[in-house]
Write a structure and sequence with these properties.
This protein is of the alpha+beta class and about 100 residues long. The chain has a single domain, classed as 2-Layer Sandwich (Beta Polymerase, domain 2). Helices cover about 35% and strands about 20% of the residues. The protein has 4 helices and 4 strands. A 4-stranded mixed β-sheet has the order 3-2-1-4, with helices on both faces. Strand 2, helix 3 and strand 3 form a beta-alpha-beta unit. The longest helix has 12 residues. It starts with a helix and ends in a 9-residue tail after the last strand.
Protein backbone atom coordinates (compact mmCIF):
# COMPACT_ATOMS: atom_id res chain seq x y z
CA UNK A 1 0.00 0.00 0.00
CA UNK A 2 1.37 3.40 -0.98
CA UNK A 3 0.80 6.27 1.40
CA UNK A 4 0.13 9.76 0.10
CA UNK A 5 2.54 12.55 1.01
CA UNK A 6 -0.02 13.89 3.50
CA UNK A 7 -0.40 10.48 5.14
CA UNK A 8 3.37 10.10 5.45
CA UNK A 9 3.67 13.50 7.14
CA UNK A 10 0.73 12.77 9.46
CA UNK A 11 2.28 9.44 10.43
CA UNK A 12 5.41 11.31 11.58
CA UNK A 13 3.30 13.61 13.77
CA UNK A 14 1.48 10.60 15.24
CA UNK A 15 4.80 9.19 16.49
CA UNK A 16 5.08 12.05 18.99
CA UNK A 17 2.71 11.81 21.93
CA UNK A 18 3.14 15.49 22.78
CA UNK A 19 1.83 16.69 19.39
CA UNK A 20 -1.91 17.20 19.77
CA UNK A 21 -2.53 19.17 16.60
CA UNK A 22 -0.67 20.48 13.55
CA UNK A 23 -1.97 23.45 11.57
CA UNK A 24 -0.86 24.24 8.03
CA UNK A 25 -0.53 27.96 7.26
CA UNK A 26 1.17 30.26 4.79
CA UNK A 27 1.08 29.93 1.03
CA UNK A 28 0.31 26.19 1.10
CA UNK A 29 -2.81 26.81 3.21
CA UNK A 30 -3.87 29.76 1.05
CA UNK A 31 -3.27 27.85 -2.17
CA UNK A 32 -1.00 30.49 -3.71
CA UNK A 33 2.27 28.60 -3.27
CA UNK A 34 4.93 28.34 -5.94
CA UNK A 35 7.25 25.49 -6.83
CA UNK A 36 9.80 25.32 -4.07
CA UNK A 37 7.60 26.99 -1.45
CA UNK A 38 8.18 25.56 1.99
CA UNK A 39 5.48 23.94 4.09
CA UNK A 40 4.65 26.05 7.15
CA UNK A 41 3.17 24.07 10.04
CA UNK A 42 2.67 25.11 13.64
CA UNK A 43 2.37 22.47 16.32
CA UNK A 44 0.08 22.47 19.33
CA UNK A 45 0.60 20.47 22.52
CA UNK A 46 1.09 20.93 26.24
CA UNK A 47 4.64 19.66 26.57
CA UNK A 48 6.13 20.60 23.20
CA UNK A 49 9.78 21.56 23.24
CA UNK A 50 12.25 22.64 20.61
CA UNK A 51 13.96 19.25 20.87
CA UNK A 52 10.69 17.65 19.71
CA UNK A 53 10.58 19.98 16.71
CA UNK A 54 14.13 18.95 15.76
CA UNK A 55 13.21 15.25 16.08
CA UNK A 56 10.13 15.78 13.89
CA UNK A 57 12.22 17.61 11.29
CA UNK A 58 14.72 14.71 11.28
CA UNK A 59 11.88 12.21 10.72
CA UNK A 60 10.38 14.35 7.95
CA UNK A 61 13.81 14.58 6.32
CA UNK A 62 14.00 10.76 6.32
CA UNK A 63 10.88 10.69 4.10
CA UNK A 64 12.95 12.18 1.24
CA UNK A 65 10.13 14.47 0.14
CA UNK A 66 10.78 17.31 -2.32
CA UNK A 67 9.71 19.91 0.25
CA UNK A 68 11.28 21.90 3.03
CA UNK A 69 9.40 22.29 6.29
CA UNK A 70 9.17 25.29 8.55
CA UNK A 71 7.84 24.05 11.89
CA UNK A 72 6.95 26.18 14.88
CA UNK A 73 5.38 25.68 18.29
CA UNK A 74 2.23 27.80 18.45
CA UNK A 75 2.58 28.44 22.19
CA UNK A 76 6.03 29.95 21.63
CA UNK A 77 5.04 32.36 18.85
CA UNK A 78 5.39 35.95 20.09
CA UNK A 79 4.34 37.73 16.91
CA UNK A 80 0.63 38.70 17.15
CA UNK A 81 0.41 39.22 13.37
CA UNK A 82 1.63 35.67 12.75
CA UNK A 83 -0.87 34.28 15.28
CA UNK A 84 -3.65 36.23 13.54
CA UNK A 85 -2.52 34.89 10.16
CA UNK A 86 -2.60 31.31 11.49
CA UNK A 87 -6.08 31.86 12.96
CA UNK A 88 -7.31 33.34 9.67
CA UNK A 89 -5.82 31.01 7.04
CA UNK A 90 -4.64 28.00 9.04
CA UNK A 91 -6.01 24.56 8.21
CA UNK A 92 -5.91 21.67 10.63
CA UNK A 93 -3.57 19.16 9.03
CA UNK A 94 -3.35 16.65 11.88
CA UNK A 95 -5.25 16.21 15.12
CA UNK A 96 -4.98 13.54 17.75
CA UNK A 97 -8.26 12.32 19.26
CA UNK A 98 -8.76 12.22 23.01
CA UNK A 99 -8.04 8.50 22.98
CA UNK A 100 -4.69 9.22 21.30
CA UNK A 101 -5.71 8.02 17.85
CA UNK A 102 -5.18 10.10 14.75
CA UNK A 103 -8.15 12.15 13.49
CA UNK A 104 -6.93 13.18 10.02
Amino acid sequence: MHLSVEEKIRSVFSEFEEIEKAVLFGSRAKGNYKTGSDIDITLFGKNLKLTTVYKVLDKLDELYLPYTFDLSIYGKIDNPDLKEHIARVGKIFYQKNRDGSQDK
